[in-house]
Amino acid sequence: MMMVSTARTVQELPQSTAGEPAAPRAAALCLPRMMTAPAPCPRTATVAEEGGVCETAADYFSRSNRRGSIVSDLDDLSIPDLDSLDEKCDKQFTETYSRPSSRCTTPGLSAATLASLGGTSSRRGSADTGSMVDPDASLSELRDIYELKDQIQDVEGRYMQGLKELKDSLSEVEEKYKKAMVSNAQLDNDKANLVYQVDTLKDVIEEMEEQMAELHREVEEKSKELERQKHMCTVLQHKQEELKEGIRQRDELIEDNQRMQQKLDSLTREVFDLQETINWKDKKIGALERQKEYFDCIRIERDELRDELADLKGKSKAGEKHGLVIIPEGTPNGDVSHESAGGAITVVTQEAAQVLESAGEGPLDVRLRKLANEKDELLAQIRKLKMQLEEERQKNSKMESVFSDGERLENGTDLHFIEMQRDANRQISEYKFKLSKAEQEMGTMEQNINRLEGQVLRYKAAADNSEKIEDELKIEKRKLQRELRTALDKIEEMEMTNSHLVKRLEKMKANRNALLSQQ
């Protein structure tokens, strides 16, 4: 019975180890070199088998001495039926060696054991023929049985140890798999959170980009408005410069007019002064002419008096000679003044007497000399006055020429001044017209600006409304995108869970098929 159980164990050992991993199977097959050696044919190696049996017998007795005694071992053992053992060994031999790969892969049985079995079978056949039992053969069989039992126990211990190690490694792998699944779930959650954060950041970036685009649009509008304002400012500055230039020209014309007026006033004053001087000179010349006429009259009278005096002297001389008295003409009733002057009597007219009285007191010669001196002085004064008169006439002629030139200049300057004043008035009227026109244009431009500002306000209101609607639509769009992303994430998670479940189902099917194939 023990041989049957050992043979069954040896037969079931490769089947049980076939479905296990390579490590336990290698551990189960890791037997001594003696057991894994190729088994020789039992019919061709009888001598070697006998030598091996002797050696194994010696080993057995030595081992039995170590364990105890041979008798106790034999008492404990029950000798099996050799016929059934031979049949089973032959059957096992035929089954193992009928396979194509049974030379080197027969587990659990050594070449010596097979040789001993073959030897026993051959000896059993010979024993059957001879009806004799060899005690050495039975001892060798018992020794082989003990060895097989030890080998089977070793193999079972190794197999159980490998199975235990395999279970431990399987539990460790399952724990690692669970930890990996937990870490994968955490990583999936982290990934989902990061994806959500990325989506929110994308939304924030889109909002910021929209704000930046809006700011760029506002900046462009402000820059365009600034350019328009600059253009209007340049136009107004140009107009202002033109108006300033016109005002400057007007001021210059006014200043020129004032200077011309001042020059004209100075010229008129000079003319008036010259006229006054000329009038004074004319008056002086008239007085001198009257004085000259008076002196001419006096000179004529003097000459007449000289002539009369000469006549009187001649007559007096003749009268003295003849004793005559000269009676002046016009003496009434022939009255004469009798003066005794050195025995001579002189009779003169009243005018001559007045002239002589004006000459002073003294004799007639002295008076006449005085009159002659006065006459010379008067003649000298007359010459001086004539010279002065000539000078004054020359000056007068020069002044008349200057005055005529001044009148002509005055007339010309008056005309030029009138023309300049007309031009200035015309320019002033033109500037006033331009100013009124510019004011009208400014009024129209202000009206246009007000109208355009109203349009801009309306457009801004419409733009604000459209921007509000656009913002609402963008918010709805973002909400829909978030919902879409969440739906897609859920779909991906469901697909991942589905794929995991499919993989687990396939693994379970594979394990079930493996278990079914092992059973």
Automatic annotation (TrEMBL):
Keywords: Coiled coil, Wnt signaling pathway
Pfam family, one: LRRFIP
Family note: Belongs to the LRRFIP family.
Positions of the UniProt region annotated as Disordered: 1-20, 115-135
InterPro entries for this protein: LRRFIP1/2
Record bears the keyword Transferase: no
Coiled coil: 163-322, 368-511
Protein name: Leucine-rich repeat flightless-interacting protein 2
Biased composition (Polar residues): 1-18
Taxonomy of the source species: Eukaryota, Metazoa, Chordata, Craniata, Vertebrata
One GO term of the biological process aspect: Wnt signaling pathway
Keyword field contains Coiled coil: yes
Species this chain originates from: Megalops atlanticus (Tarpon)
